[in-house]
Design brief:
heterodimer, A: 522 residues, mainly alpha, MetI-like fold, 22 helices, 83% helix, 0% strand, B: 353 residues, alpha+beta, Rossmann fold, OB fold (Dihydrolipoamide Acetyltransferase, E2P), 2 domains, 5-stranded antiparallel β-sheet, 24% helix, 34% strand
């Protein structure tokens, strides 16, 4: 293949081989290994099956609700009036993406319990631990995935198609149903897949609010804790397999079939289009405010009023909490650095299809992205367990695996967007290969690198499922929060920790938006 | 077929005023070409008439009815988009039947009508294909069938032939007009192409910088352009500075010129079509120059005659024995000299000798 690499050809090739090997051994092999492990162990028992069904039920309900609210909200975000309002709403809706789910768990629990309870005068809270609260929690952190995908897809629409339909006599709702929706369907499907698999995989916050209701990821953690490794592996394997099936089904759904323009009801659709808009906007605004935004921000609003100065002192003097913060940050930095080093050559491999391995690596990375992290964590614990590696190292391996796709995806996309002609021009003007990368390619892909770094770091900082699956002694901040909550010790100090994590997330998301903006300008 | 009336239409995007007080009438069944350079507001005019843009001021009347406040889908105006915008997820037949379907027509009738329109544009048998499987010309025909199937009798065409290669475009050009006439449609057809305008139009609406420059038949526009811009944009002209001597005489480059029209101001600009200039010396109306280049164009030959300050272009179907560097005299008959006041603003593209 011609890469235009000249005399440096060998060096880039070697880098790619190394990255590929790293990807296969550290990221991809463990989950494959756990599949074989599970088959040997004799499959799922009743308890595991029930947990899996519970997980699917919750994920399904959550995805349906996400789509019902997400479609009109995305439309408003992409096409509504008032740019400032839309940008602000966009940032608010993205918050649950970066706030650790453990914080969201605590916040949601208190919102639907104390918050809404005292508002409506219900003693002891409105909704307690159990499947309903679980679904409400999952809506909070899956909703941004749906909105982000759909908004991106709507923004890509060529409005001329809609204008053409209008000029052919179609009223607004008919245009939406017959032209716009079919054209951005892929965005809806990919948002739904992300929301579904994210709900399927979440562990930490789920442990907090599920009560006696067990889901597949919490079962994996519980079985591992109880030492029943083969059952835990069986549930993990089932989770991995089902996530892959969901992904493949979605791929078929988004590309495979066509929706014909079936008979329409001109009169009804005409009415719907004009009068219905205001009602639609009000209902969806209320739904987003009560189901997503209020539960997300409740802990901050509640905490800012009630936390005393003493909490700062006890937070600073609490060695367990401080050390877990240090652990979380060191882990986050290490994982981000390693992933960046590996993702750069691999992204090049994917975008330029070096060794013709591009599509395969892309698909595998997509699979990793949707595999539940507790299953991923367990597979890493089992895969490397025989070597008796130290716990911190296992933790690094676990975090490397579930964050890797987050780093690879944006960088590979940015590489693909760089016009190869630019590199050719630079070469003909006398620049060496490395100079071309430094002066032409790198400035163009830098925003994507920033985005990948922030997302990787945030995900590592907030993850619980895989962390619980591989470590017993080393505690990260989210794990500590889960422990405190489960032990009934949510005091001012914990609330303060939540608010600090929340603030850090807010700063990072603003940085992410700034990087995004730079990306969009190009 | 409806007539159309546009009254005082204005449209701006922020500070940028694109249409400035445009008024004109189109008779029922007329084929009007909207001509002008890029950025002059042609497409904006069409989209504002269609209701896709909201006008800043003015009214649009179709068949005597004021449609200015109607939604675009209620105006019954067919719009042909420059890049077709065929719905990529629908087959050719579904694209063509779209308008009838969204307005709730009977399915049996839709099928029949789609067949008929596909036959009309020569795409029988292609109904089951998706747009991306068609060639550019076929996509253009599909878009045409789609807009025809809407049954609307007023058609706005936004550079319908622009995306096609020259040969196919010229073939479809004549087809387009004969089809519109046969189906009894009123058409406004936007193009930047002067040849297309001359070939198709019943009338030409010439726009520049958001204003109507001239609205006349092609012959009128060519023979009696109202401004230097019109003389420059429709056909080709040589422009020369001159001063008034008396009501029908001017002085230009030191020589006296008799003109047929009345000289409006002390300082004027003369416009002369290249094919109106003859070789030979007369007492008046004669310029001297040196032949710079000779290009044989087949039916005609083109000469570039250099003078101090610029070049004069002459085109003739005769082939006199003239070679580069010959010194020659050019005679311009009084009736072929157009005279414009020099006080009018001049387009940037125009070079005046």
């Amino acid at each position: 293949m011609s890469l235009g690499l000249g005399s440096d050809f060998g060096r880039v090739e070697t880098l790619c081989v190394g990255a590929l090997a790293f990807f296969l051994i550290f990221i991809f092999l463990p989950p494959v290994y756990v599949l074989t492990y599970a088959f040997g162990a004799g499959g799922l028992d009743d308890h595991g099956t029930r947990a899996l069904i519970n997980s699917f039920t919750v994920a399904f309900v959550v995805t349906v609700v996400d789509l019902l609210i997400g479609l009109p909200v995305s439309w408003i975000l992409a096409r509504g009036r008032g740019l400032r309002f839309r940008q602000a709403l966009d940032t608010l809706i993205d918050m649950p993406l970066v706030v650790p789910t453990a914080v969201l768990g605590i916040s949601t629990y208190y919102f639907w319990g104390d918050g809404v309870g005292s508002l409506l005068g219900v003693e002891g809270g409105l909704i307690g631990k159990g499947p309903i609260l679980l679904a409400l929690l999952h809506i909070v952190f899956t909703f941004p995935y749906v909105v982000r995908s759909i908004v991106a897809a709507i923004s890509q629409l060529d409005r001329n198609h809609e204008q053409a339909a209008t000029m052919l006599g179609a009223p607004p709702f008919t245009v939406f149903r017959t032209i716009s929706l079919p054209l951005f369907r892929a965005g809806v499907v990919s948002g739904a897949v992300l929301a579904f698999t994210r709900s399927l995989s979440e562990t930490g916050a789920t442990l907090m609010v599920a009560g006696l209701y067990s889901t597949a990821p919490t079962t994996v953690v519980a079985l591992k804790k109880a030492g029943d490794i083969s059952s835990a592996a069986a549930v993990s394997a089932a989770l991995i397999a089902s996530a892959v099936i969901v992904l493949l089904a979605a791929r078929l759904l988004s590309g495979g079939f066509r929706v014909p323009v079936v008979h329409v009801w001109p009169q009804a659709e005409r009415t719907l289009g004009r009068g219905g808009m205001g009602v639609r906007d009000v209902i969806s605004a209320f739904a987003v405010a009560s189901l997503v935004l209020a539960p997300t921000f409740y802990i901050v609003l509640k905490g800012v009023g009630s936390v005393h100065q003493a909490a700062f002192v006890s937070l600073i003097s609490d060695w367990t909490l401080l050390s877990s913060i240090i652990v979380s940050f060191v882990l986050g930095f290490a994982v981000t650095a390693i992933n960046l080093a590996v993702a750069l050559p691999l992204a090049l491999l994917v975008s330029r299809n070096i060794f013709r391995a591009g599509p395969a690596v892309e698909l595998l990375s997509e699979v990793i992205l949707i595999v539940p992290t507790s299953a991923l964590g367990l597979s890493i614990a089992l895969f490397w367990g025989h070597l008796k590696l130290a716990e911190p190292l296992m933790l690094v391996f676990a975090h490397l695996s579930f964050t890797f796709p987050l780093m690879l995806k944006p960088i590979a996309a940015a590489f693909s967007a760089v016009d190869p002609g630019l590199e050719e021009v630079a070469r003909t003007l006398g620049a060496r290969r490395l100079t071309v990368f430094k002066t032409v390619v790198y400035p163009l892909i830098r925003p994507a690198i920033v985005a990948g770094v922030i997302m990787t770091f945030m995900r590592s900082l907030s993850e619980t499922g895989a962390t619980l699956s591989v470590s017993d002694k080393v505690k990260t901040v989210p794990v500590l929060l889960v422990d405190a909550f489960m032990g009934g010790k949510v005091d001012d100090k914990t609330t303060l920790a939540c608010i600090l994590l929340f603030t850090a997330s807010f700063i990072l998301i603003m940085a992410l938006k700034a990087a995004d903006k730079k990306n969009a300008k190009r | 077929m409806p007539n159309v009336e546009v009254q005082g239409l204005s449209k701006g995007f922020g500070e940028n005023k694109v249409l400035k007080d445009i008024s004109f009438k189109v008779g029922a069944g007329e084929y009007v070409i909207v001509l002008g350079p890029s950025g002059c507001g042609k497409t904006t005019l069409l989209k504002t008439m269609a209701g896709l843009y909201e006008p800043g001021a003015g009214r649009v009347l179709v068949g005597g009815e004021d449609v200015t406040d109607l939604q675009p889908e209620e105006r019954r105006i067919g719009f042909f988009f420059q890049h077709y915008h065929l719905f990529p997820h629908l087959t050719v037949a579904e694209n063509v039947g779209y308008s009838m379907r969204v307005r709730g027509m009977d399915e049996g009738m839709i099928q029949e009508e789609v067949e008929e329109k596909l036959r009309l544009v020569g795409l029988t048998g292609w109904g089951g294909h998706l747009p991306h499987e068609l060639s550019g010309g076929m996509q253009q025909r599909t878009a045409l069938a789609r807009v025809l199937a809407s049954g609307y009798k007023l058609l706005l065409l936004d550079e319908p032939l622009n995306a096609l290669d020259a040969k196919i475009a010229s073939m479809l050009r004549t087809e387009l007009k004969s089809m519109a006439k046969r189906l009894g449609m009123t058409v406004l057809h936007v193009t930047p192409n002067q040849a297309e305008a001359m070939e198709l139009s019943d009338k030409i609406l010439l726009l520049n910088d958001g204003r109507v420059v001239q609205y006349d038949t092609d012959v009128e526009c060519y023979l009696r352009p109202k401004t230097t811009f019109a003389a420059h944009f429709i056909g080709e002209s040589n422009f020369l500075k001159a001063e008034k001597v008396d009501s029908h005489t001017v002085r230009c480059k030191g020589a006296l010129f008799q003109v047929k029209v009345e000289v409006p101001e002390d300082r004027v600009i003369l416009a002369i079509r290249p094919e109106k200039i003859r070789f030979g010396h007369h007492e008046r109306n004669t310029l001297e120059g040196v032949v710079e280049a000779v290009s044989f164009l087949g039916a005609t030959t083109r000469y570039e005659i250099s003078r101090k300050g610029g070049t004069i272009v002459v085109e003739t179907s005769k082939q006199p024995q003239i070679k580069p560097e010959d010194r020659i005299s050019l005679y311009i008959p009084p009736e072929d000299i157009l005279v414009f006041p020099a006080s009018e603003p001049l387009d940037d593209d125009i070079t005046v000798l």
